[in-house]
């Protein structure tokens, strides 16, 4: 997608603090971290979000939990606990319309997903 921020980060046209990249998936630090560890994990293939899954994104999607677990270990939050979230649409507060998963950890994250 020509004007998609996260496509441009995946293509290294816009800088980001990359923490993982492979053929299907890129991960980088969130620019406004909400926890000591706040990473964004994205498929390289453009997809607006979970409402818009197409077959070409499914290989990346299938591997994202495993990559997240590896990143949680590498960033020292596996034992303490972490959360993997994808905001989809307005009520969820999605602001970037390239599918992404927030990996959050490094502090108690609260017992509720909704408040
Ligand atoms: P959403 O609100 O769509 O679930 O999450 C979008 C996330 O992207 C936000 O947490 C926001 O801080 C992050 N973000 C927005 N612009 C940039 C950017 O240019 N670079 C990086 N690394 N993160 C960004
Ligand atoms: Zn994109």
What does this structure look like?
The protein is an alpha+beta fold and 115 residues long. It has one domain: HIT-like (HIT family, subunit A, 2-Layer Sandwich), CATH 3.30.428. Helices cover 20% and strands 22% of the residues. The chain contains two helices and five strands; from the N terminus they run H-E-E-E-H-E-E. The chain has a five-stranded antiparallel sheet, covered by helices on one side. A hairpin with a 7-residue loop joins strand 2 and strand 3. It is globular. The termini are far apart. The model has no long low-confidence stretch (mean pLDDT 97). The structure holds guanosine-5'-monophosphate and zinc ion (ZN). The site of guanosine-5'-monophosphate (5GP) has 13 residues, from strand 2.
Q: Which structural class should the secondary elements be placed in?
A: alpha+beta
Please state the average pLDDT score: 97
What would you call the shape? globular
Query: How many domains would you count in the coordinates?
Result: 1
- What is the straight-line distance between the termini? 34 Å
Instruction: Give the strand line-up of the largest sheet.
Output: 1-2-3-5-4
Task: Say which molecules are bound, naming each kind only once.
Answer: guanosine-5'-monophosphate, zinc ion
Low-confidence stretches: none
Helical content stands at 10-25%
Specify the number of helices: 2
What string, H for helix and E for strand, traces the elements in order?
HEEEHEE
Assigned CATH class: Alpha Beta
Instruction: Please state the second-level CATH architecture.
Output: 2-Layer Sandwich
Q: Into which percentage range does the β-strand content fall? A: 15-25%
């Amino acid at each position: 997608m020509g004007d998609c921020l996260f496509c441009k980060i995946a293509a290294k046209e816009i800088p980001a603090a990359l923490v993982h990249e492979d053929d299907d998936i890129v991960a980088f630090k969130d620019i406004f971290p909400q926890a000591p560890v706040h990473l964004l994990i994205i498929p390289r293939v453009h997809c607006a979000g979970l409402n818009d899954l197409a077959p070409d994104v499914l290989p990346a999607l299938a591997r994202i939990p495993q990559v997240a677990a590896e990143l949680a270990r590498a960033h020292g939050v596996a034992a303490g606990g972490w959360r993997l979230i994808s905001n989809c649409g307005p009520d969820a507060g999605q602001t970037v319309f390239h599918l992404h998963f927030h990996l959050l950890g490094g502090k108690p994250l609260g017992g509720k997903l909704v408040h």
